[in-house]
Amino acid sequence: MKTITKEVLQDAANRLLFTMSDEQYDTLMGEFKILTKQMAIIGEIPDLGNYEPMTFPFDCTTSYLREDVPVAPLTREEALKNAGNKQDGQIKLPKVVG
User: Is there a contact between 36 and 4 (Cβ–Cβ < 8 Å)?
Assistant: First the structure.
């Protein structure tokens, strides 16, 4: 892992097109020290590589969704019957992009 230094953070800030004060860099360096210590502790967990990464910490089941039952689609006339502005069998919308 790349060592986080003030110069690395300044380079990252320059690439992202913003500037920070020396005090802000010092604060950020302190945050990175805490973060790297936490990452090291997590890395010491035995057999960590044997587990699949989680994308969400809880099992979620959805039982409230309806069954997907195929039905006949609307006809063009049914789909357009409530449209305010129609042209050539389609809904006519105002121009959005110049």
Answer: yes
What is the distance between the alpha carbons of residues 37 and 51, in angstroms, rounded to a whole number?
21
Domain ranges of the chain: 6-43
* Secondary element (H or E) of residue 5: none
**3-state class of 98 per DSSP?**
coil
* Half-sphere exposure in the Cβ direction for 49 (13 Å, CA): 1
Smallest CA-to-CA distance from 24 within 6, 3, 4 is with 6
- Residues 9-64 pLDDT 10s: 999 999 999 889 999 999 999 999 999 999 999 989 999 889 888 888 888 887 77
